[in-house]
Amino acid sequence: MPLKEFTSNIFLGRNSELDVLQSIASQAASGDASSVILSGKRGVGKTELLKHLFNKLFNDQKDTIPVFYTIKTAFTSVNSFSKDYLSNFILQYLAFQGKAPSLINASIYSPEDLTDIANKSGTQWVVDIIDDYLRILEGGDAIKLFSFVISVPYKSYLNTGAPVIVIIDNFHKIRKLCEPDSKNESKEIWTLFENSIDFRYTPHILAGLRAELRKMFFEETSIGKRLEIVNLEGLSRHDSIELFRYFCKKYTLSCEAEFSGFIGLFGGNPFYIKAFIHAARQSVKTLTDDNFWEIYIREITEGKIYTYWISILRTYIRRFELIKPSLKLFYHLWSNSVDDVLANPSEKISLQREELDNIIELLHMSDTIEMGFSTIELSCDEIFNDVIKGLYYREIQKEPLDRIKDLIAGDRRRCIKLAEAPSFNITIPSTPKAELVAVKSLEHIAQYFNIPLETTGKLQVALVELFSGVHAKNGSSAKSYQVKCSLRENIFSMEVITSQRDFVMTDEDSIHIRSYFDDIRFESIMNGTRIILVKKLKENFAAA
Asked: Coil, strand or helix: which one is 345?
């Protein structure tokens, strides 16, 4: 399969976003496409999603030319960027037209080589584009050169009539390229992308960090008002577990721990899951509950995740004297006393107000704190927060490593224990008699929860109706159903996950379900549909 090495072997829970982005190609063909900002936290999978998108557009359709480019921080001038951007566009255009994916990774950067390939392929307009590029380069006008190369997708459409979808990863990094290194280069030169982005036959998908893209497109310019936004969240709990299992199997790591309790700690972040498994396989063959926490603490205090975040913080907090005040600011955010810090920063963290404002802005741009209209909050990234806690305990409170381990692991274990509710997770094979397995399982679960027989019988009738409806639509396409039963504060709930996408039942088809349960909801998820059934129990019905 072409480009198979371009993407990873495992790709979970992104079908919905992939469909949305893939539809832009067909919209471009009719001149009705809007450009998109794809934003999300670090490590959430933006790059992998874009790679899969490019792979599908390259292999599965022939009307819209896909181009994938990553902004490289190694380029320090407009000239170096322009040469690389133009080379990538030409090679990917020719690769798509000739269905020759090997061209995409060809180490060809000289205009002469590109001209030779274009001549052999019979694309004279590409030869003309290269000649125009060389003339502008010789003239020495960096802004004109930059404007020319980023308009090449538009020129491609004018010459061929074929729309182009331009995918640019790490777009926020282009600002570093645009720092002036001569009197001819403007700091805001990236805004010249505006015309290319607006043209509906050449939509752009621009990915990067939320805070930086928000600042570029909405705070400093108004370009963003004409763009659609796709926010990439973490993987669902189910997909996180599947990814965890995949890596365990890949690296022959067995798991005896009940990881459904701590899987939420990763926040659906594929980078964290993979980094943890890599760390685990270096020290153990079997993952238990106890060594999970040993590996976790080691990873956030000295491992790859720790190193990753330290390098990012150093990138943004360049002044050494601001490092400890930054850790103190994080501490006060944990303590919910940020108003005190803002009111008197010199007393709380030994900073003047101007320096504090500078730190807040830097941390916001690094995507480590959230800023609302009038509030400042910690990122909801629990692993990052634990990395910072470890740093604070060590650098500010001077705690020994063993004490740091106890503090973080103890807090985490208590949080997980408090968050747990009595529940049962069942996998039911997809067969014509699946409802019988579900009904029998519900009987035993209801006995455990001390639910009266009369109520149990009604729930079983409703469950038969549900499974009959699900199986009628799924047929033999689904391998199994995931069922979760839980009880919290006298609310009994059942969650049934089916691979059938956009599954719903009419009122007529679900009359018994709606009469026996207090609520029924259908939620579209990445891997199908989650059906949630809720039954309110009288207090004396539920088990203590």
From this structure: helix
DSSP three-state, residue 334: helix
Q: Name the pTM for this structure.
A: 0.73
Digit-coded pLDDT (tens) for 416-441: 544 455 788 888 888 777 888 889 99
Residue-wise DSSP of 41-93: -TTSSHHHHHHHHHHHHHHH-SSSEEEEEE--TT--SHHHHHHHHHHHHHHHH
CB atoms inside a 10 Å sphere around CB 310: 12
Query: Helices 304-316 and 353-365, interaxial angle, to 10°?
Result: 130
d(CA 23, CA 544): 51
Which pairing describes strands 286-287 and 254-255: parallel, antiparallel, or unpaired? parallel
- 117 forms beta bridges with none
Output the six-digit token pair for 249. Answer: 């199997």
Spatial contact of 123 and 162, defined as CB atoms under 8 Å apart: no
Q: Which long-range contacts (CB under 8 A, 24 or more apart) does 353-359 make?
A: 355/322, 355/325, 356/325, 356/329, 358/322, 359/317, 359/322, 359/325, 359/326, 359/329
- Of the candidates 306, 295, 244, 303, which has an alpha carbon nearest to the alpha carbon of residue 269? 244
Task: Provide the β-strand partners of residue 428.
Answer: 481
How far are the Cα atoms of 224, 306, 332, 402 from residue 297, in angstroms, in the given order? Answer: 40, 10, 22, 10
For residue 279, which of 254, 305, 256 has the smallest C-alpha distance?
305
If we measure between CA atoms, which residue out of 13, 14, 37, 34 comes closest to residue 25? 34
Are the CB atoms for 378 and 369 separated by under 8 Å?
yes
3-state helix, strand, coil in the chain (%, to 5): 55, 15, 30
Which residues are bridge partners to 493 per DSSP? Answer: 486, 534
6 has a pLDDT exceeding 90: no
The label of the residue with tokens 């010459």 reads: 159
pLDDT, tens digit, 9 for 90 and up, residues 267-292: 999 999 999 999 999 999 988 878 88
CA triple 463-468-470, angle to 5 deg: 95
Handedness of CA 134, 73, 24, 105 (dihedral sign): positive
pLDDT digits (tens, 9 = 90+) for 31-77: 999 999 999 889 999 999 999 999 999 999 989 999 999 998 776 68
DSSP result, 233-283: -PPPHHHHHHHHHHHHHHTT-EE-S-TTTTGGGGTT-HHHHHHHHHHHHTT
User: What is the pairing mode between strands 528-536 and 519-525?
Assistant: antiparallel
Q: Do 467 and 479 touch, CB atoms closer than 8 A? A: no
Residue pair 63/163 in contact by the 8 Å Cβ criterion: yes
Place of tokens 């659906």: 268
Residue 301 near residue 404 (C-beta atoms within 8 A): yes
Helices (H), 61-198: 78-98, 111-121, 124-139, 142-150, 152-160, 174-177, 193-198
